[in-house]
Amino acid sequence: MVKRLLYITISFFILFLIIISVLLNFIFTPEKVTPVVLGVLNENLDGKVECTSVELTFFSTFPNFGAKMNNGNIYSGKENQDTIGSFKECKIALNVVKLLRANEIDVRRVSLIQPNLRILTKKDGKLNWDILKKENTIDVQTDTAKFHVDFNSMKVKKLVIKEASISYQDMVSKLAIAIPKLNLNLSASDDKKQTVFKVDCTTEQMAVGSDIYKVVKDLKTYLKTDLVLNKTTRELKLSDTKLELNDIAFDLEGDFKKVPKEKKVSVNLKAFLKVPSLETLWLALPRKYLNIEDVDIDGLAQLELSTTGFWEVEVYQYLKEY
């Protein structure tokens, strides 16, 4: 009896996979899916998304359904003239059960391959990536049908970025950051009291500066941390943090707090040299500047990096004017 039940279960599972395969390959083809998906996206944006094709996925995102966009571009503004990003591949895995039962968009995973992102903070403090419409209702008109989509909430559980190129410019503070190569794994877990973001990020050849001077050049970084957001106090705290700057390890601690009734955030960050050895710093020096071979180094090194203060657009505008 058990063997027969197992045989029937396997047979139904195989039949289900065959049906899904037929639907994806012969009915929901990229030619039919692409205009529908782009229509839904663009009706929900103060901008525009373009791509060569959209494919529905099941086997590569099992047990969730998903979609893969190829060779995309993202534009902002009503005229769609400002290119704020592009990507080779974007894959999204979605929990369809929650969407059908509770009208919740529960994104299990977002994967971006070779994205090129251009992030700009304008003089009024607004981001050029702030292109998501506030409404929760979408009407999409295609050549064949009209779709109406309502959703109550949207959550993203995991974000994976591979081989990204990022440029950031702040028109208020005149800060500029260039990251030719970035890899990121970001996942989130949530309960009634807090949200925990697990971050694992590496960068290469990072440069930080302004219109006047360069602060950092050719910086290689590695960051692994848990960002814990307290839903009551709105405090974001770093936990279990590992930081490396050009292969020098640091212990990092600190928090970000929203100041009540004010449009600013208090920042309190401290980094300490993990191995307080002078030899650690000496070995980290680039060989093109100093010959570090056949040199004996002994002694202790104390190094502490700290950032304390407030972030607010009004402060940067005041400093700029005076």
Can you walk me through this structure?
The chain is α+β, with helices and mostly antiparallel strands. It has a domain at about 195-205 and about 220-320. Helix content is about 20%, strand content about 50%. It has helices at about 1-25, 30-45, 95-100, 280-285, 315-320; strands at about 45-55, 65-75, 80-95, 105-115, 115-120, 135-140, 145-150, 155, 160-170, 175-190, 195-210, 215-230, 235-245, 250-260, 265-275, 305-310. Strands 1, 2, 3, 4, 5, 8, 9, 10, 11, 12, 13, 14, 15 and 16 form a 14-stranded mixed sheet that branches. Strand 14 (about 250-260) and strand 15 (about 265-275) form a beta hairpin. It is globular. Residues about 1-10, about 10-20, about 135-150 and about 315-320 have low confidence and may be disordered.
Short key terms for the protein model shown above:
322 residues, alpha+beta, 14-stranded mixed β-sheet, two-stranded antiparallel ribbon, 5 helices, 16 strands, 19% helix, disordered N terminus, disordered C terminus, membrane
**Share of helix, binned:** 10-25%
N→C terminal distance: 85 Å
**What structural class should be given to the helix and strand makeup?**
alpha+beta
- Morphology: globular
Q: Provide mean pLDDT, rounded.
A: 77
Which stretches of 5+ consecutive residues score pLDDT under 50?
Answer: 2-9, 11-18, 136-148, 314-322
Main beta sheet, described?
A: 14 strands, mixed
Helix and strand succession? HHEEEHEEEEEEEEEEEEHEH
Radius of gyration over C-alpha positions, nearest whole angstrom: 24 Å
How many H/I helical runs?
Answer: 5
What fraction strand? Answer: over 45%
Total E-strand runs? 16
